[in-house]
## 1
Amino acid sequence: MNLLLINSIGRQKWGGGEKWMVLAASELIKKGHQVHIGCRINSVLEQRAKEANVPVVRIDIYTDFSISGYLQLKKLVKKHGIELIIGCQNKDVRVAGFMSRMTSGPIVLSRQGVQLLNKSGKYKWSFLPYCDGIITNTNSIKKEYDSYGWWDDDFVKVIYNGINDSNISDKQLDLSRYIPTGIENPLVIVSTGRLAKQKGFEYLIEAASSIVKQHPDVFFFIAGTGKLEMTLKRQVHDLGLDRNVHFLGFQKNISELLNAAHLFVLPSLYEGMPNSLMEALAHGIPAVSTRVNGVEELMKDGEHGYIVEPQSVSALERAIEQLILDTELAEKGQRGAEHVKDKFSIDKMVDSLEIHLLKQISK
């Protein structure tokens, strides 16, 4: 197959969708396919793709009616013999789909790690005509989309994200400089993600305020960058949590950080299939997660940790407290690791993706 994966996300942004794109491209190349990633130049996505030895091409799509993006795609399709395009943003799909319709070009699919459509006429008439199918990573999104009645049952394909065991490090990040001397058995709670409203860190910080009063040897570490960094740091300071809550900034090797954790918390307001939670479970770390898309397919409440309602500080407090006091913490972590490695392996993801794409091309 000759494939082009495009993502017009901002230059400094990096998240689950971008991780999926680089991983999928890299693994498909290993299976003998020709794959290019199209993105903005000097972006984090471009850098990570090159680090993974995935060929990168420049794509400039800033709006749904991008003339430059249209011309770039038309030229790339002809030059590389592209048979299928996967777009990660709605505007990517619209521009690629319009180009394809005008030139009798390649199949155009939309890859959606989070819900990007709703039952609105604007999507039925401005998105659907330019899209040949959707790939998502949760049954909950497929169920929602299929309820619109716009397509047959095969239009939305669920392909779970995959975890790469070989990326799990045997090293552990040293967090001792953040922990006061004299504390022999600190309990480390980790949360990762963009410092944005979607990720719900403000609720986690508020929950931490009550937890550390009862458990002063519990320490929270938040890894990530984003627009809310100063706001969240101010919240930590105002609540008197500077001793127990620390921001680590961007961490390139999340595995080493997870190896230092006893618990993981995902306080998000919405997600698709959260890669950060999958990675934590794969490392054998019990988790507390909000009940967002994909989580109930990824972990079992009470068995691998606890699932709580979004935006509920009290629910986060209770669930974290339960795990802090749990005498079977290691067993929960082990069960979570076995579950994720069995159901969400990278091999299963890539095999399912390859079969689906070949089927699309052969139609």
## 2
Amino acid sequence: MPSHTPSLAPTTVVGAHNYPADLVAAIVRATEAAASACLPLVGSGDKSGADELAVAAMRDALGRAPFAGTVVIGEGEKDEAPMLANGERLGTGTGPACDVAVDPLDGTRLAAENLPGAVAVIALAPRGTMFDPRDVFYMQKLISSAAGIGVLDVGASAAENAARLARALAKPIDELVVGVLDKPRHASVVAELRGVGVRVHLVGEGDVSIAIAAATPGSGIDAVMGVGGTPEGIIAACAVRSLGGFMQGRMAPQTNSQRDAAVAAGHDLDRVFTLNELVASDRLLFVSTPVT
């Protein structure tokens, strides 16, 4: 490995008590293998190459993990990227039967440009407990710490939710920090939040990292609002539920063809999903290894 290649930051593990120690160790090895594999391309500008290296390393490691895993949330279809595909079987076939949510490299552009926030992530839940959002690639998300429970509502305006959360946290609204993906579709959300004094933290990519921050009290990010990837949304839900935070989601197709496909697949686009509906179990394991 070249001497200028950055080294890995510590891996975060939440819910280790829910699964056998050998399986937890195998999942940690898988995220660390994915993160390590793409390090030589960090800062290279080659986001597809970095993603390919991460995917191959994670697939290889998960193939040796002592469980019967089925990928419910994979990455790649939305961006036509290399992926661990939905329905793919992982593991040795012995041990717990699990739904698996994976993103070998969440924040491919961040890694390619050596910007903070790229991570390799895996979440496990008992088989049949993760919501499968196939045919819908985007989701409106509202995420916070436990302070948002019974307070926030994804159907309310951004300004109203900001005011509610500020009251719940007992802080002035001009001290509230809300993470928003820096995308053209969020121009009105950003303007609305800034219009009531909220400090907006714009992130180019990294749905999962910013979700973890929002669910963690004292992180400096009080909430996440806006539309991001649905696969990342389910992974984030696993992390948020593990951390005891708040989350709601609603399917948000971005084009007419995406809307038609979602309706044809039987999705109710007005339905608000609670955290318990996005992942219907407390027996979760969430593992994240930072790349940048």
## 3
Amino acid sequence: MKNRKALLIIDMQKGSFTPKTPRFDTKGVVNRINMLAQLFRASGFSVFFIQHDGTKMNDFLPNTPEWELLDDLETETTDIFIDKYANDIFYKSKLQSKLNDLHINELFITGCATDFCVASTVQSGLTKDYNITVIEDGHTTGDRPHLKAKKVIEHYNWVWQNMIPTNGKVDVKNFEQIKNNLTSH
């Protein structure tokens, strides 16, 4: 079966990018996500924006400013918007059924936060036999009590490159590699 690709953009919401929660290279990550989304749309592939719905915890309430996507993210009417309810975006969301409907078997993952929702989604997608490509410079997080954000990102990129494959696998490629691959076809 032909590979059907989808770009997942996880939790790039205003509530995750505040003065109290600065993120590593936000501007660069947003620019790379915007360019990737344009390339995916131009290639006829799906672009998913995943937004955390924290109603259960009384934060990230739908249609509030913290729930909204960052102003600099470029969306199109053809994009697919999915609410999520836990770190793993597959958990009780409509993502799996939408991926099945579109016959998608290859996921390209970007977003926030590297060590929470991005990591959970990579691992969950792998156990569901997806081929996954993490955009090495397309995800971000904040400094942690014991580790700077840049090191957290570097660590997870290393972990993902060394995960045991299922029927799917995880690759880690930077924006330029993905761009060159998409534009050469």
